[in-house]
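cron nightly-structures :: item 1 of 1
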Amino acid sequence: MKKVLIATAAMLSLTVFAAPGFAKEDAKAEFDKHCGACHPKGGNIMKADKTLSKKSLAAHGIKADKDIIAKMRNPGPGMTKFDEKTLPQKEAKAIADYILKTFK
C-alpha cells in the first residue's frame, strides 16, 4: 500500500509541475494509447499520405494544436472519433502538442 501511495504521489508531482498540462511521458502514453496503433512513429496505416509529419499536416490544413484536436473530434472516414467523453480536452491538447513537437 505504501509503495502505491508513493508512486501515486510521484506521478501527481510530475503532472502538477509539468508545464502546461501533462509531462512529455504522459503525453506519449496518451498518444500510444489512443493514436499509436494507427499512427506508429507518426505514420498512418490507413492512408500513407496522411502522416503526422509537420509537412503532411500542413498540406492538409493542420498547423496548430487546435487543428489536430478538431480532427480528433470530427475525423474523416477511417479514423476513430474522439469526443470529450472518450478523450477529455486536457488529454487531447497533450496529444496534439506531443504530435507537433515529436513528428517533424
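cron nightly-structures :: done
Confidence is low (pLDDT under 50) at residues 2-19.
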